[in-house]
Amino acid sequence: MVRSKRRAAWESCMKPRTSFAVLSLAILACLSARATAEDLLSADGRYGVGVLRTEFVDPARAMQVANEASAPRRLPAVVWYPAQAATQERAVGYLSEAGIATTLPAIARLFAYPPTDLQSLASARVRAQANALPARTKGGFPVVVYSHGLFLYPEQNTALAMQLASHGYIVVSIAHPGDAADLRLQDGTLVPTQPMGQADDPRFAEAWKILAAGADLSARRQALAIYAQAQPGSRVGRAATQWRDDAIFVANAIHAQHEPQALRQVMEHADRNRLAFVGMSMGGAAAAAGCRHVVACQAAVNLDGQNLDADLYDSPVQRPLLLMLSDWPRYGLLPPQPKDPAFSPNDLAYEPWRTAGQDPRIVRLRVQGLRHLGFTDLGLLVGQKRVERFGDLAPADAAAAVNDVVLTFLDVQLRGQVPATLDAAIARHPALVPHKPVQVQRWIEQEQDGTKD
């Protein structure tokens, strides 16, 4: 994918000028060329973007894991898809009216943001059409099942979803009620965010500390056995399983042509055998954990989600995986994770430890200058305390890197583009640093040599 016109225009503005008058005119032009948040919530593919809202219903599971009477489990979804006609109008609000009234105050509460800092989410509009006529293509469009982050919301990566839709992907972003920011179901029922840490098995947190910061692999093997036993007794562990199962249910419903009625017209133009799971934070971990359980899922993308699935430690993920990580050596992420660039706790997942870093289908990247929430649209839309909240990487550069690399990775895995195109996409963005699980490799070598640090 070539540079966007917006980016090229801004770079052109920054060229040296020969006179003060020319420089003054250039500054005015540059100020008008700079992308607004709403400009960044646009897409550059060949298709227009349609958007609709619907709800999946799983009669076999409950809304709350510990409360069978809360069945069925309802999963609100926002769907972005290729539309027949493009629009230059910002015809759709970034959030729905229910989202503005219910979800926005919850985000402020959960992240301790002053409500005024989030007003841009209420006013932002995007270049998409509600319920637009879907585009058609020979063979159908691939489908992406997207999962948001903990305490977040299904629109949190609208910039990415619109970019994918404009390039011919149907993106089904599901909410995970109870762990999402407060939301309303289609019938108006309020589902508030459930608190964390209720009657947790304390062994889970203790085992996690050793996985993140233990002395060696031997200590981690012992901790992993305890971690697996304690996971069902942990609020986070139960949520991780539920989120994985949410994504699996939605993917299987789509594959079996059991999607909601409101989605039928769009899915008539889908290739139900070409699916991918994508997510951010806990949603990214769920995407990586769930894809291997769905025959039609051909690839997964994890945007800075720490693996929580005990079965994926020291084990293959069984699908091509793109893992994009925040800049933990600078900002940290989950205590007590060390700020060692040679080690991320996710290095313990997705591959057997003895062959860590050897599977070419597993792509691990660190995004320099980006904090965890910088993977979301909040970095584009919330201007206050930007570095403190999202990192010092410019939001436009962060969004461009994520959108470009995710799109290219999916094109390689689902559309047969040559792998070199992914290498080129990574090279286009100076903030992206390929990450190798160096410390895990060292530990394996030490075990084989019978030595320790």
UniProtKB/TrEMBL annotation:
<dbReference type="GO" id="GO:0016042">
    <property type="term" value="P:lipid catabolic process"/>
</dbReference>
<protein>
    <recommendedName>
        <fullName>Platelet-activating factor acetylhydrolase</fullName>
    </recommendedName>
</protein>
<dbReference type="Pfam" id="PF03403">
    <property type="entry name" value="PAF-AH_p_II"/>
</dbReference>
<keyword id="KW-0443">Lipid metabolism</keyword>
<keyword id="KW-0378">Hydrolase</keyword>
<dbReference type="InterPro" id="IPR029058">
    <property type="entry name" value="AB_hydrolase_fold"/>
</dbReference>
<keyword id="KW-0732">Signal</keyword>
<keyword id="KW-0442">Lipid degradation</keyword>
<dbReference type="GO" id="GO:0003847">
    <property type="term" value="F:1-alkyl-2-acetylglycerophosphocholine esterase activity"/>
</dbReference>
<feature type="signal peptide">
    <location>
        <begin position="1"/>
        <end position="37"/>
    </location>
</feature>
